[in-house]
Queue: 3 jobs
Job 1
Amino acid sequence: MSDAIADAKRALRAELRERRQIMSESARDAAARGIAQQLDALVDRLGARSLSCFLSTTTEPGTRAFVDGAVARGIRVLLPITRTDGLLDWSVATPGIDIAEGMFGLPEPVGELLGPIAVNDVDLLVIPAAAIDRTGMRLGWGRGFFDKTIGSMERCPPVYAVVYDSEVLDEVPSDVHDQRVTGVVTPTQTLVLSPARR
């Protein structure tokens, strides 16, 4: 990655992180309700019976209500668990699942570990992002877990990133290893941004 791209990513991430930290609790709660509604509608539209989703941190658009609701509806939800080799293990979400702090301080489930290939069986990937541009290019937080996951999948299902409305941008800095997503889910809308993945 060139220094200019790395610097541009770092600067944009810092700005987005700061914006998220100053958001009010009521705005976060409203966003979480909107995200749950948008994701529920997406799952119904795609007919997804299994999916992967991340457990949101306190500053991310909330996904926990959606995960709980999906599990209650009988949908199989895989939750990511970070590994030191840069890959993700997965665990099946259950009602009242225990959550602990994983690597990098991220909330992760406590449960049986499924290997990285477990995600190959899902109908939908719901992933975090710092920002998304109008072509489906995703700016992550710089660790590459989801780029590696998407890039390694033989038959990748639709991939939707979850961000706040203000984080859908005209363009984000990107490099060759960065992966495009199918679409983006915000508290107020779900957009298809790039052609379906193969």
Job 2
Amino acid sequence: MSESQNVIEIKDLDVRYGWGRHSVQVLHGVSLNVAAGCTVGVVGESGSGKSTLAKTLVGTLKPTRGTVMIDGVNVSSVRGADRLKLRRKVLQMIPQDPFSSLNPRHTIGQALAEALDPRHADVKKHRSVIAEWLERVKMPAEAMSRYPHEFSGGQRQRVAIARGLIPEPTVVIADEITSALDVSVQAEILSLIAGLRQELNLTMVFISHNLAVVRQVSDEVAVMYQGKVVEHSPTAELFNNPQHPYTQSLLRAVPGTPGFSIDPGITEHISHENRAIA
């Protein structure tokens, strides 16, 4: 695809933690483009730099070198109101742990109203839109009057997805959003994401350590190893003909290996979910 179609353009990205001689470089010259309407899965073992990349994309970490352009905006250069606008309307993150990211004193309706309109987080004013989004993530409209602790982990993740998508952002970053869920609930969430991707033509970076999950949801896959992108190609091509030795080793990994897995159970559950939806 041409560069004009790229919503995300990452070029020569270095990121360090700490200062001076005690600093540690975590990302090394990362370059990655994501086209409009494309989901790129970012996969790698713990410590490979996936979460650091996500934090740099949303602007919570500043690169020591290189640029992150999202929808034509240099993420590290925006300040004040422009930064808030970027975080709300252009870029949203769906977190790994929705329970810690949801205010326990706010109802689900308040959480969604605030995401939709931070200045006027009025549930009554936005009731119809909130109800519509709850329905989209397969939650009942009456959930808006309840609190996060009243729901299961899978239900809270559905709320987190609705909260991330309700502002209709240009880009969505999903960071290990199924890792804390059991296999059957993971399958439900992945089927939900698949439907929303198609319905909304989402541009998404989907971060995971699980190859089976990434294979189900991604158009392309970027493999990270020791802070570098060592391979990036269409999903089918990467799984059928991996080029980098590290990618090859991941695909040979024994299911359930700590820190990385190819879980066939997820694929089976997802297939069942898709048949049920059809």
Job 3
Amino acid sequence: MSTAELHTLTGAYALHALPEDERLAFERHLGACEACAQEVRELSATAARLGLAVSVAPPPALRERVLRDITTVRQEAPASGRSARAGGSPGRAGRWSTYALAACVAAAAAFGGVAVWQNQVAQDARQEAARAAQHNEQVARVLTAPDAATSAADLGNGARGTVVVSQSVNRAVFLASDMARPPGGKVYQLWFDDGGTMRSAGLMDPSATDDAVLLDGPVDRASGMGITVEPAGGSEQPTSDPVALMEFQDA
């Protein structure tokens, strides 16, 4: 992908809408392009504000109004005279009106439930959009920091790992490329190396072979990072030999 094409991906990146390979390529580009980095920060902030916008919900009094209006609809009079003599059932029309009224009440109640469900779905979507925008913004802050320092390592079988650390932001980002998926029921877990003591830094997506992971927690005095294969959900301490150990470089 050319540099000119990468310049056009700021909007899609801010909306978390790029395929994995393009996202990884664009994040590498961010480290060398201040114009794109600034545009991503602005678009991410805008996306977050739009995602948090309040949606239009049905008026709270709608259910009560529907129930009130139902009571004003006249029921049909009981069958009499000619219809009764013709064999009609005197109570049939009344019963059908009762059934219709019950159906309307049930529909009104169901409408209220659907409105609550739709509002919850919208709220969940807004929260997810806000989390994605915040993740993108934090990753961009690390990659574009003036003191960002990069270390790379061969992870075997053609896979590569790159860690970018910013002491001023006090965060680190791990970029994986062509990593083999972990065995079933397992997950890659990242660790900060605090002078030989390993501190959990989060889990990778087990379904992703290319990924950009914002390590959990601050860098602080960590001198490097490691990757191990752990049971799903992660471990408090490493339980397997490291897939890789990477030292942090100074800016």
